[in-house]
Amino acid sequence: MIRFFTVFSLIFLLACSVRAEPPLLFLHGSPYQGELMYGYATPGSTVRLNGEKLSARKDGWFLFGIGRDDKGTLTLSVEKGKAKIRKVLRIKPRKWRIQKVNGLPQNTVTPNEEEQKRIEGENKLVEEARKKKVRRSVPLCFSVPAKGRISSVYGSQRIINGVPGGQHNALDIAAKTGTVIRAPADGVVLLAHEDMLLTGKTVLMAHGNDLTTSYIHMSKILVKEGQKLKKGDKIGLIGMTGRANGPHLHWTVMWKDKRVDPQAFLRNSAAFCSASAKPAKKAKKAKAAVKKSVKKAAAPKAQETPKTPDEKADKEKTPAIKTDKKEKAAPEAAKKKTEETAKEAEAPKDKPSAPIAEKENKK
Description:
The protein is an alpha+beta fold. 21% of the residues lie in helices and 32% in strands. The chain has two domains: 21-93 and 268-358, Immunoglobulin-like, CATH 2.60.40.10; 98-260, Glucose Permease (Domain IIA). Strand 10 (156-160) and strand 11 (163-168) form a beta hairpin.
C-alpha cells in the first residue's frame, strides 16, 4: 500500500510540473479608432474580447472592430484547455475632418413628423436584417466594390445644408450613374429595399463572423434578398436616390454594431489578397520565423504556424490593392505578414495597420 501511494504521488507531482502550453495569438492591424483588425489564435481556442466570446474561422483567423468614438482599452484573451494568454490594447485616437455638404433635399435634413416615422421604420428594417444569423466563414480578402473618385471619407463631422449633423461613418465613391457595383467578397443578401427616404435603393450583405456591408443610393438593384453572391457578382448600379446631391456609392462596413473605416479595412485585408509564386519556400520561412519568435518568448516548445487562406491573384485592379476572386488554403502574403510579425514581436511599431505578435506566459 505504501509503495502504491509513493508511485501515485510521483505521478501526481510529475503531472503538476508539466505546464500547459499557451496558445498563439497574432494581431494584424493597429488599434486605432475605426479600425477593423484581423487576429489569429491557435485553432480550437476560445477567443474573447472584453469578456465576450468572438466567432472565429476553423483555421483560427477572426475579426474585431473598433468604433469611431471608442476610447480606453480592449482586452483579448485566448484559452485552449487550461492554458490562457491575455493581451490588452489601448485604443489610439484619430483626428476627423469637418465636411460641409449642401444641396440636399431639405425634407431629408429636417424631416416632418410623418417622414420621421418613416425613417424610424426603415431603420428598424435594417437593424432586424442585420441581426439575421448567417452561418459562413468570413472571407479574408475584400476588394473595392466600385471604381470611382473618393468623395467622402469615414469619420467626417458633417454640416448638412448649414445644419450640424452626425458623423459620416462610411466611404463615398463618386462615379457616373449606372456604374457597376460588385460584391467585394462572398456573402448573402440580407436586405434589398427599393425606396428608403434617406438611403434610396439599399442593399445589405452578410459575409459571416458578424461582418456586414451595405450599399446605398443605387439607381438600380440587381439582387434579391436571400441570394448568395460570389466575389465580383453585380449588386447594382451607382445612382443618387435618397438623400444625395450627386451619383455615388455610400459603402458601409460593420462588425456587429460598430461602423468601421472601409479604407483601413481594405488596407488590412490586402495582406490576404496577394498570391506568391513560391508558396513552399514562403511557408518554410514563415514557420522558421514563428519558431524563432517562440524561443524569444521563452516558450517550452515551438508553436504551430498560423494557417491562412491560399488565394489566386485577381486581374481586377483597385485604387490601393489587388483583389482576388478565389480563396483556398493559405495566402502567402498573410504568411509574409506572420514572418514580419514574428520578427517584430519584441518591439511592435506604433503605426496604423502594423502587425503585432503576442506570446505570453500562462496567467
